[in-house]
Amino acid sequence: MPEPQPSNRRTLGVPLFAATSAVVLAVAVIAAWIGSSPRPGNSQSLIGGSFALQDGDGRTVSDESLRGRPFLVYFGYTHCPDTCPTELARIADVLAKMGDEAIPALFITVDPERDTPKVMQDYAMSFGSSITGLSGSPQSIGAVEKAYRVFARKGEVQSDGSYSMDHSSIVYLMSKTGGFVEALNLDRPPEETATELERYF
């Protein structure tokens, strides 16, 4: 009868444990980073800040023009194959549940090279009139990405000139004064999220 081979099981267990530990650590770091951000109204917030971008009608939308009401911010791009349209549809569902009390929601491009203000407006409008698409110069987009701690990176350009954008996917809830409140949880019925948002008026 062949002898048992305990060493194989032990060898496989070490990298599996290390990988699991790495994932747990990464999640803990992200949670601590989000959780450590000051709550609404605190000027010391590490997320958010001043910005001035353009909508499809040539108007400037800024943090100052949004003061007085809470608002949502989501970063993405119009060529995004799945994540962006999914999140925008979920945001639109929440705002629809709020009716006349719907708060402003901004969709800011991470791909200003292709996403002009008009392109952003047309794309955002496909999810309803409640979401405003915004763009600007690469410099102004880079500044607002930095202010909101957004990760965005251009992928490899293909032979036909196409490319994708790697980017973080967070829906930011901002307070009446422009301070960061939380990363909004959309993994629940839209009416629950709508009820939560009404508390920040």
Structure explained in plain terms:
The chain has 201 residues and is an alpha/beta fold. The protein has 2 domains: 1-36; 52-198, 3-Layer(aba) Sandwich (Glutaredoxin). The chain contains 5 helices and 9 strands. It has helices spanning 6-35, 83-98, 117-125, 138-147, 190-198; strands at residues 52-54, 60-62, 71-76, 105-109, 131-134, 152-154, 165-167, 171-174, 180-183. The strands form 3 sheets. The protein has a 5-stranded mixed β-sheet with strand order 5-4-3-8-9. A two-stranded antiparallel ribbon has the order 1-2. The chain has a two-stranded antiparallel sheet with strand order 6-7. Helix 2 crosses helix 5. The model is unreliable at 4-43 (pLDDT under 50).
Defining traits:
2 domains, five-stranded mixed β-sheet, alpha/beta, globular, Glutaredoxin
